[in-house]
Design a protein that fits this description.
With 81 residues, this protein is mostly helical. It is 46% helix and 7% strand. The chain has one domain. It is built from 3 helices and 2 strands; from the N terminus they run βαβαα.
Length: 81
């Protein structure tokens, strides 16, 4: 799993979260996490655009979210963070 690199403390929190999720994987599954600088990985750019549009919508500006209406399905997830 590639995770966008942030601060050292947040990177450690990411690792902790992933460790907890690994228990739900089938036995014998090989799974590793690698932090990658966001500017070096274009796959993160699309996620940032979608996240920005959704956040903007939740804060009262829906014009960007409406552009993605046909391809974005939102699910609220409690992360306790």
């Amino acid at each position: 799993m590639w995770v966008e690199a942030r601060t050292t403390a947040l990177n450690k929190r990411d690792i902790s979260t992933v460790r907890g999720a690994r228990f739900n994987l089938p036995k014998g599954t090989v799974f590793r996490v690698e932090h990658v600088d966001g500017q070096d990985e274009p796959v993160f750019w699309a996620a940032d655009i979608v996240a920005g549009a959704v956040r903007s919508h939740r804060e009262g500006t829906g014009e960007y979210r409406s552009l993605l209406a046909g391809c974005v399905y939102e699910i609220d997830v409690a992360t306790n963070c």
